[in-house]
Automatic annotation (TrEMBL):
This is MHS family MFS transporter. The chain crosses the membrane at residues 26-45, 51-75, 87-108, 114-131, 152-178, 190-209, 240-263, 275-293, 305-323, 329-347, 368-390, 396-417. It is found in: Cell membrane. Residues 14-423 form the Major facilitator superfamily (MFS) profile domain. The keyword Membrane applies. Keywords: Cell membrane, Membrane, Transmembrane, Transmembrane helix, Transport. PROSITE patterns: MFS. It is a multi-pass membrane protein.
Length: 448
């Protein structure tokens, strides 16, 4: 029985499921970041002192980045063994459940040290599930997409991510304006509880999806590998390195949203609310432009669209920091739209298909999950590096901008380091003489 055809509403449903799933995952992730900066030092670490409590709260945010690589091994393995759909339902339930529980946690004043312990456990669960969401959603949507439109449909995973950031930021703007007593008692909990509504909708959509035809064919032909990670390590280390370098462009995001926010507020007297709205506007733009760039990549190729966007980031990051030094909010918004909605959206919209197309179906979930989670590591360090590099005066930002530009140029070069895959048939993606020859020895029948 053949499963190769993808017809009807399946690609659209897969794209919608990816959009909603990513929106939930990253809404949950981002509201935690806002709460850790604004609230958690008072609620969960009240006896630590202001500075120490803030550091402790932010440390719980970082815990998720330790859990993510571990989650990538586990979720990637089972995504390639038992199916994309089952693992994606698990990631959504885990993220949604842990986020809702955070909103229910008693404060330190009620249960003492157990409050921060339970908070950290919930945060670990968030990080663990996030490790498999984008990679699984990208794999599943890619494999459901018709030939010639894989980039477009797969890009909705990243549109969902940007939508999650927008909604999370908007959710915390009114919460942060509550009276102090209301904010610390119940106000901060509302955004965590509200995520349950989108989780329910996303779960309904995701449960109605079938496994991709490519995975069903592997089960029928008994090509599901027993240890996908071993096949990945043996045959795809080159793709792993290429993804790590390509993903250096993403340092733009964390540097702008984390460091740039503080830099504009503290050194150039732009109000915090103005900068938050700048982030919202830029990301709303990305929700629109990401699928447009991805659609273009279906026509002209993944590599040129990714590279042009990365090189655009290398140039426009100078415009962004210069605009901040003018203290003119209108200029900052325009520069942010140029950097984020126009330039950054290009590689951001293309990478789900570009990276996923480097692997064949047997190891696609594992390869994408492990590669992207390790590729995300530099993002965590860049805000700290930026704070150390930044100088004083109107041109103190130049060394940082040069560093970011160099990273983006390297990312553009890495995009061209491999073959173009936009027009390669799905069955031929990631296949090499070595991996094809190795397949029979690794076959295993999947039974549940």
């Amino acid at each position: 029985m053949s499963h190769t055809k993808t017809t009807g509403q399946t690609p659209r449903k897969a794209a919608l499921a990816s959009f909603l799933g990513s929106m939930v995952e990253y809404y949950d992730f981002f509201i935690y970041g806002s709460a850790s900066a604004l609230v958690f030092s008072h609620v969960f670490f009240p006896n630590a002192g202001a500075a120490t409590g803030t550091l402790a709260a932010l440390a719980t945010f970082a815990v998720a980045y330790i859990a993510r690589p571990i989650g990538s091994f586990f979720l990637g393995h089972f995504g390639d063994r038992i199916g994309r759909k089952r693992v994606l339902i698990f990631t959504l339930a885990t993220m949604g459940g842990s986020t809702f529980l955070i909103g229910c946690l008693p404060s330190y004043s009620v249960i003492g040290v157990w409050a921060p312990i339970l908070l950290v456990l919930c945060r670990v669960a968030q990080g663990f599930s996030a490790a498999g969401e984008q990679s699984g959603a990208s794999s599943m949507t890619l494999e459901h997409s018709p030939e010639g439109r894989r980039g477009y449909f797969t890009s909705f995973t990243l549109s969902g991510t940007q939508a999650g950031l927008v909604v999370a930021t908007l959710a915390f703007i009114p919460v942060a304006g509550l009276p102090t007593e209301a904010l610390y008692s119940w106000g901060w909990r509302v955004p965590f509880w509200a995520s349950a509504l989108v989780v329910i909708v996303a779960m309904i959509v995701r449960r109605t999806l079938e496994e991709p035809p490519a995975f069903e064919e592997m089960k029928e032909s008994q090509e599901v590998v027993k240890f996908p990670l071993m096949v990945f390590i043996r045959h795809y280390w080159g793709s792993f390195l290429r993804i790590v370098v390509c993903h250096l462009y993403a340092t733009i995001s964390t540097t702008v949203t984390v460091f740039g926010l503080g830099y504009a507020v503290e050194q150039w007297n732009i109000s915090r609310s103005s900068m938050l709205w700048t982030i919202v506007i830029s990301n709303i733009g990305q929700v629109v432009t990401i699928p447009l760039w991805a659609k273009l990549s279906d026509k002209v190729g993944r590599r040129p669209v990714f590279a042009v966007g990365a090189l655009g980031c290398a140039a426009s990051v100078f415009v962004y920091f210069w605009a901040i030094t003018t203290s003119n909010w209108s200029l900052v918004v325009l520069a942010s739209v140029l950097l984020g909605s126009v330039c950054y959206a290009a590689p951001n919209g293309v990478w789900p298909s570009l990276y996923a197309e480097m692997f064949d179906a047997r190891v696609r979930y594992t390869g994408l999950a492990v590669s992207t989670q390790f590729a995300n590591v530099p993002q965590g360090f860049l805000p700290t590096i930026a704070a150390l590099m930044i100088g004083t005066g109107a041109f103190g930002w130049v060394p940082l901008a040069i560093l970011l530009a160099v990273l983006c140029v390297l990312a553009a070069a890495a995009a061209f380091a491999g073959r173009e895959t936009a027009h390669v048939p799905l069955k031929q993606l990631g296949r090499t003489p070595r991996t094809t020859a190795a397949a029979p020895a690794a076959r295993v029948t999947t039974t549940l």
